[in-house]
Amino acid sequence: MSAKALLVLSCTILICSPARSENKEILWMLSDWPPVYILNNHQTPTQPAELGSGVGDRVIKEIMGRLPGYSSRFIQANILRTWAEFAANKNICYATAYKNPEREKIAYFTPVLMALAPVVVVRHERRGPLGLLAPDVTIRALSSRTDLKGYIDRGRSFGATIDEIVNRNGSNLLRQVESNEGHLLQLLDSDRMDYTLEIPIVVEYESRHLLFQHRLDVLTIEDSPKFLIGYVACSKNEWGKTVINDIALAVRKAAATPSFQSIYTDMLPPDLINANRGQYKHFYNNLEKNKLELP
What's the CATH superfamily of 119-221? Predict the structure, then answer.
């Protein structure tokens, strides 16, 4: 074959062959944990369109809608398994993470939402006998009491400040593995412990939907920031560095939109929305402009 014929053939191949598109995949870890994740019929989604209406579901949908060239896959797992996968350096992401020093060793983070800090949850009629009639409490003092039985989920983070207090030597707030998300609130309702910690939107949602036999009250934690930043976390390796940077750009694009700004506040009662409207507006303005002051 002549050199001219070879040149024509090469050009034909280059023109006619389809371009190779790089389809990058994100493996998202999620759990059946309303209203953080609300899985349809408790089933693991196979694509973003099958995600529910929970906070994490909506975060993922908003992000993936702004990440052309990426696809999604999902694994349903409890919080212990999720962070074990991070520790094993698997290529994964998690859309609703709190950050603490231990997790920063195994994951990259980018901010995505502002949440009300965790609260202490007690049965209403037990507040008097337990000496918890005040609307707030210090978790350091509460977790030091030997006359009370308190449990939190093993593997959960409640923000760096609370984590440091409850994980210290001498804390009587014990950790146990939940058989299912929300199980500790059910144990509290059945009077098998005195108190637990939980995020406000979970208490609000489960009080409305699970019809507890007893009224559950929430107490503000004085020795914790009022708000915590929620993050998307991705594995701390080269894959994760690329993905978290792309996700950060997608979040900044989404931050100015009403649908993104309402992801968390849609789960709050009107009084809490009105009381914190200014703080949320300030947060999303700074998130869009990449001007957040983060610890």
Answer: Periplasmic binding protein-like II (3.40.190.10)
pLDDT tens by residue, 145-175? 999 999 999 889 999 999 999 999 889 999 9
116-137 per-residue burial string, b: 16 or more CB within 10 A, e: under 16: bbbbbbbbeeeeeeeebeeeeb
Q: Where are the domains of the chain?
A: 24-113+229-288, 119-221
The correct answer on CATH 3.40.190.10 for the domain covering 24-113+229-288 is yes
> How much helix, strand and coil, in percent to the nearest 5, is found in the chain?
40, 20, 35
Q: What is the pTM of this model?
A: 0.88
CA dist., res. 197 & res. 36, Å (int): 16
**pLDDT above 60: residue 112:** yes
